[in-house]
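Appendix C. Worked example: N-acetyltransferase GCN5
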Amino acid sequence: MNYTIEEHVPTPQEYCDMRVTAGLSAKSLKAAQIGLPNTLYGVSIRHDGELIGMGRVVGDGACNFEIVDVAVDPRYQGQGLGRQVMEYIDRYLTSAALEGSYVSMIADEPVFYEKLGYRLVAPKSQGMTKKFYRAN
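Step 2, the predicted output written as structure tokens:
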């Protein structure tokens, strides 16, 4: 198949649609419109112009980087596209991270990322989350 890899984030609507298509939690269009421009690095994979894979790096650009939104349309999974997204992200991180920089992620499929050299931080550290909602 003929894929195009672009080193930028998708449109906010494409981003929201891909998260749902790939089985990730839904994000509001407003959140995507605000958040995507603050991305440090993004990669999108397209087939005939349609978004079929994506990934982003967010953070402060020096001390902390977080890998987020790695997703591939289920119709295209198993073809190495998730690996390609991560190879682009790893290349970016190799060029941007400094000594002492911290790279993190919350992985739904840790085995996939372990194959790419990522390691669980437990038991030394544990991932945590807390939900916040701003009144509209």
